[in-house]
Design a protein that fits this description.
Blueprint: H1 2-14, H2 22-31, H3 35-48, H4 54-66, H5 70-87, H6 90-106, H7 110-126, H8 130-143, H9 153-166, H10 170-187, H11 190-206, H12 210-223, H13 230-246, H14 250-267, H15 272-287, H16 291-308, H17 312-430
Helix pairs in contact: 1-7, 2-3, 3-4, 3-5, 4-5, 5-6, 6-7, 6-17, 7-8, 8-9, 9-10, 9-11, 10-11, 11-12, 12-13, 13-14, 13-15, 14-15, 15-16
């Protein structure tokens, strides 16, 4: 019962809502030549066209394997696993989830490694293999502990809370739901916020704290405005109807169940939510003492219970298989991790060598720069001294030249006087 809710929750929250024109995709597919792009387009057609034929997805997986397109195998295997899950073929669901994980590891695609591990955790949770489910969920959280994948953490924490809830550990369950609520609020994920409020409200409903339950369920309904996952809306409306019925507000409860019934009919939901609608109507008409009509709804609810819980043998087989797969995965992960650690260590050593080499070169450049700067300063200082001496020399030269000129002028002047004195004496002698 709980698993079907988890399955649809995963399916509606995992893929970002997009609108594709299937006919346009088919036309593009006919003209596309690239094998990898053809597989991508076929996958989109299969997913958004709601194709659940196993042969369709088997063909995609086969073609992707032939061209060694790892992402194609990963994606096709994951979608095929969800299809087998919906059909109740859990052994095949686990096998395909395991294949999705294997090829995502080969592709080093942490996103799809996380999705595949989370899905394996969900399958193990369904078969009540709680410890294995916890191991898978914790492994998924480690992969989601990045900015790129942090949006998935809240949904995994919700699932951890559900495991506590199954063990009637309501304190730890509520703690996980509150933790998930904070994750969703930080991410401004209105769908996740609505889910967290719903899980908290349902937990209080189980404990018969009806007023508190009603508070959170109404917040869940209010938070999910403009969200397209109508299947999940049915669960909120159903639980609101049950709480109002238990509070003695029968007609208000009936209004909520009519809304749920309308959504259920519109989306063709005939599973768990539809079972709960019929069970509510059984209780409602029983309270009105209309036992004939109440019995009719009770028979429908009981028949759906048988359909939903007729897989006990499959669960036992899957429990054994899942345990083997997880042990095998842990062994492979340890080997892979040791390889990754060795590679990371080698890369780190290379990076350190590069850093050390760069620092050494920069140090040399710095020392050389300081040396050049000092030389430049000394040269500048010497240049100034030389220029000062040259100016002093020029000044002294100029002074010498001035003195020399003065002396020369004095000599010339003395000579003129002498000649002036001598000439008349000569003249006298000659006369």
């Amino acid at each position: 019962m709980r698993f079907l809710f988890i399955y649809f929750l995963f399916l509606t929250q995992l893929v970002v809502a997009q609108v594709f024109d299937i006919d346009s995709l088919k036309r593009v597919l006919k003209s596309e030549q690239s094998p990898t792009k053809k597989i991508k387009i076929r996958s989109l057609i299969g997913e958004y066209g709601g194709i659940e034929r196993t042969t369709y997805w088997d063909s995609i997986i086969k073609d992707a394997k032939q061209i060694e397109y790892l992402y194609g195998v990963t994606y096709g295997s994951f979608m095929q696993s969800l299809n087998y899950t919906k059909k109740g073929q859990y052994d095949k669901a686990v096998e395909l989830a395991e294949q999705s994980l294997l090829f995502s590891q080969k592709d080093r695609d942490s996103v799809w490694m996380g999705y595949s591990i989370e899905h394996l955790g969900t399958l193990n949770s369904f078969i009540n293999e709680k410890q294995t489910a916890l191991n898978y969920y914790n492994d998924a959280l480690k992969l989601y502990d990045t900015k790129k994948l942090s949006w998935r953490k809240g949904y995994v924490i919700i699932k951890l809370g559900e495991i506590h809830e199954l063990d009637s550990n309501y304190v730890d369950g509520n703690e996980k739901y509150q933790e998930a609520l904070q994750c969703f609020m930080s991410a401004k994920d209105s769908s996740g916020i609505s889910i967290a409020y719903y899980k908290i409200g349902k937990l209080f409903k189980i404990q018969h704290q009806l007023d508190t339950s009603l508070h959170y369920l109404l917040k869940a309904l209010d938070s999910r405005k403009n969200i397209s996952d109508e299947y999940y809306l049915c669960f909120i409306l159903n639980d609101l109807a049950f709480v109002y019925l238990d509070l003695g507000k029968r007609e208000i409860a009936y209004d909520y169940i009519l809304k749920s019934q309308k959504e259920s009919d519109r989306i063709g939901e005939k599973g768990l939510a539809f079972r709960d609608i019929n069970f509510f109507l059984f209780r409602y008409y029983k309270s009105k003492k209309d036992y004939q009509l109440a019995l009719q709804y009770k028979e429908v609810a009981d028949s759906l219970d048988k359909v939903l819980y007729n897989n006990s043998n499959d669960k036992a087989i899957l429990r054994q298989q899942a345990k083997y797969i997880y042990d095998k995965e842990k062994e492979l992960d340890e080997i892979e991790n040791s390889k990754l650690i060795a590679i990371e260590r080698e890369e780190k050593e290379k990076q350190q060598l590069v850093i050390y080499g760069t620092c050494f070169v920069l140090l040399l450049v710095l020392v050389f720069s300081v040396f050049l700067y000092n030389r430049f300063k000394i040269t500048q200082k010497q240049k100034k001294i030389i220029e000062a001496k040259e100016k002093e020399t020029q000044l002294q030269k100029h002074l010498i030249e001035e003195k020399h000129k003065e002396i020369t002028d004095s000599i010339h002047y003395a000579q003129r006087i002498q000649r002036a004195l001598i000439t008349p004496k000569s003249t006298l002698i000659n006369n």
